[in-house]
Write a structure and sequence with these properties.
The chain is α+β, with helices and mostly antiparallel strands. Helices cover about 40% and strands about 25% of the residues.
Length: about 425
Amino acid sequence: MSATSHAATRPAIGIDFGTTNSVVARLRPDGNAETLARDTGEVMRSVLCFWTASGKPRHAAGAAAIEAYLEDPLEARLIMSMKSYLAQRSFTETRILGRAFTLEALVALFLRELLAPFRADLEDARIVVGRPVRFVGDAADHALAEQRLRAAFAAAGLPRVEVALEPAAAGHRFAATLDRAATVLVADFGGGTSDFSVLRFQPGPPRAVEPLGHAGVGTAGDAFDYRIIDRVVSPRLGKGDSYRVMGKPLPVPPAWFASFARWHLLSLMRAPRTLRDIAEVARTAEHPERLHHLRLLIEEETGYALYRAVSAAKAALSEAEDTVLDFAHGDFAISAPIRRAEFEAWIAPDLARIGTAVDAALADAALHAAEVDRVFLTGGTSLVPAVRRLFEDRFGAERVTAGGAFVSVAEGLALLAGETR
């Protein structure tokens, strides 16, 4: 086989390693992309769990990791949102079961589990992986984040991956539906970031794509979840209360509740000193039972159960005008009604940041909203009515389309991999 024909027949694979979920896709012979499914479905939760069994360290990824964690949360270590650390220089390593792991090693461990069922598809493939326009973090080092991402893939056995922007990949998937030239704004909403690309598509074959502008912000679905926690749950755990020191009232430390902003931070509060501090403050607090509940929720690793309850309430508000957040652990129970209008008021600052990023993408492209022909929304947060309304108000409802909430980036990456294979 000649080198030319060999290159033309190389498999094309797209890998979307996400903050919350990860997906693998390949290009079919007919030129369309398809998501590769495992026994548990097309989407794999981006989590790891470590525990000890019969004196030996064990680990699992995805749904198996969650199952292992729920079996014994006090003795297991659940690692979530690994992607959120990629751009943070302060994260060098963490110790798990007495062993040091770099971030790259943790991501590589997850990637090996993610890709294990598809190793045959990866043989000699051209592989394109995604990255956000902006990684999570106020002082995010984006060059470091991509370097770590590439290093993790290399450690997982894929040293020659190519990297593409996630919203641009989603745009390629959407462009397959176009029959004429169009300027498209693609909005890709993940768990930790919201990313936007403005692209000019010329229909093919071959399809021509010109990137015009990009922008991103570290605000997405996790931030919306936190707003529910902050307004509904945290006040029942002591936020906003006071305690006394030598007769003087002081606020319960608000930093304790900031850890609810990112689910993976909550388990870090299990440090003995933090738990002792909460117990000490509770002794003179105006509502000591609330801080006792906080301490138990942290100590008994209930963060994931709370996360599921909050996410379910958020999803329900995308379908209905009101819902009830139900959560219980021991003698702590919440059954709190939430109206969509309330939720939308809570997330207004996050929507404003998303809107600012959209404007930045347009400015980067030197375009006005009226010059955008189509808008494509993807990712779980695109299902939130207030998010869609933000785009409809700017561009007109007739120009806004949504789809492939969890798979469009991976399938778009596979399409990119096939274009120059």
